[in-house]
Write a structure and sequence with these properties.
Layout: H1 2-20, E1 25-29, H2 64-69, H3 74-83, H4 88-98, E2 120-122, H5 133-137, H6 151-166, H7 169-176, E3 179-183, H8 188-195, H9 201-205, H10 208-225, E4 229-233, H11 242-247, H12 264-287, E5 292-296, H13 298-307, E6 323-324, E7 345-346, H14 363-374, H15 383-387
Parallel strand pairs: 1-2, 1-3, 3-4, 4-5
Antiparallel strand pairs: 6-7
Helix pairs in contact: 1-4, 3-4, 6-7, 6-10, 10-12
Length: 389
Amino acid sequence: MKLSIFFSFVLISSFHLSSAQRYNALFNFGDSLSDTGNVVLAGLPYGMTFFGRPTGRCSDGRLVIDFIGTAPSTLSAFCVYRSAPESCCFSFYHLLVAAEGIGLPHLPPNTAKDADFHQGANFAFIAATTLPFDFFHQRGLSKGLWVNASIHEQVDRFEKLLPSICGTPQECRDFLGKSLLVVGEFGGNDYSTGLFASRNVSEVRTFVPPVSQAIAEGLERLIGLGAVDIIVPALLPVGCFPLYLTLYNTSDPEDYGPGTGCMRRHNALSWYHNTLLRRQLDRLRPKYPAVSIRFADFYAQVFDFAINPLKYGFKDGALRTCCGAPGVRNYNFNLHAKCDQNGSSVCPDPTTHVSWDGIHMTEAAHRIIAQGWLHGPYVDPPIVSSSDD
């Protein structure tokens, strides 16, 4: 048995190396769902699960982008087996998990001093909107805007950094030809800026066409710099977030999905965004036939968590916050005692929850989401299989 596990370890390690050979770097753009340290606000318990300290990640541990780039150590998994032979199946599962990812280090935030960006960088910022601040100023929505990091601002930063990584424009085109870019999720903060200012969903819905257009423009700029392999995540079903469920709580059962308990009108906003985003990607693909532009269906994954949380091991469900305080209904979210604030507490086991703090997810949820991008079906073709071609 030990011998067979050892050979499995070797084979899986070999698979992991071969699947990583296509990509020499990973670059990420987005907001708090993927910021790895450009904005560091919260203290512990943020970062408690993996890093043991706050890193700027809005979770108890790693994010989806962390699992896309790297994976748990195969050596650690093998040691688990050696110390507990009776748990060989459990250890073998962890060996399989260790074969995931594209074999690159955790992404340094692009604002990090003395960081090595030759294998990638992260341009995502907490609270980043897709659109520039002027769009919101013109609509009387200046309150709450504080991080000027629109998609074009992030691409500007990327373009400025590139020469220090790869040299001349042609050398950078060659370099980006072997890099993976994840662009998004974008849009959540654009819509929340309106919603949190008491604008109704119908008005905020008018933001969707310019948001999807801006994402497409950002993609075209990246393609112009040499990007050939791009993942574009969908907008999450925000109507399933404990924050939204608390803020917009109603007594009308028709406002909630019968199978999920999520808010219908807010999920409809996300659905509309994703429909227009898909149309933009469909428009770009024939225009750039040599570029792989793949949609990552964030929405479907998280919605499935809400439909059947036990399928994924989330015995405390998808709508209850792990780090928070009692508030409306059973969501464990309270605006006056948010995660890391006085009055809040952390659940005994974050792995049984989807939601970490009411708007961001747990490391356990991020790991499962990354599985769906690396191996399908939520990115088609999947990242790992496509990198073997």
